[in-house]
Amino acid sequence: MTAASSPVIVSELRGAGLRVTAARVALLQTVRDGDHLDVDALTAGVRDRIGYVSLQAVYDALHALTQAGLVRRIEPAGSPARYEGRLRDNHHHIVCRSCGGVADIDCAVGQAPCLTPSDDHGFVIDEAEVIHWGLCPGCSAARTTWAPQTA
Fold first, then answer.
1. Are strands 92-96 and 131-134 parallel, antiparallel or unpaired?
2. Is residue 31 a contact partner of residue 84, using CB atoms and an 8 Å limit?
């Protein structure tokens, strides 16, 4: 563990029953500083903070942090898993079909889980996960200004 470790993160790890390691602290900091990062970006961020760490160590730490409820994993279709530190507020996501960018969308209306299914099949629902798809402003603008070359 480094001197730059956040006492809050150390406390959260201990409170979740996890061993405090430099890799876990750096990973949790990287997730929280990032924006829906994939494993490659998270690994690079951890390495920037503490030096070399194996990809397997990052996967293992992500699994532990996700299981402990300190990190949320989202999996947009056709995209690698992404991780975020925004938790327990039942927000949703919007994904760009072109560049793969992801942004948070707050719950549109009502109380959690924000949606009422037509048939709950007897389940007690406490969360809804919605992913909206479209083009981000940059990709949308590029698409409207691009014209194919004709021969």
1. parallel
2. yes
Helix or strand run (H / E) with residue 134: strand 131-134
- pTM summary value: 0.77
Strand order in the sheet with 102-105: 102-105, 92-96, 131-134
Output phi, psi for 135, to 5 deg: -115, 135
Tokens of 66: 């996700």
CB–CB of 95/130 below 8 Å? no
pLDDT, tens only, 74-113: 988 888 899 999 988 778 888 898 888 888 888 766 555 5
Question: What DSSP character marks residue 108?
Answer: -
Distance CA 86, CA 26 (A): 17
User: What angle in degrees, to the nearest 10, is found between the helix axes of 22-33 and 7-15?
Assistant: 110
Overall residue count recorded for the chain in this entry: 151
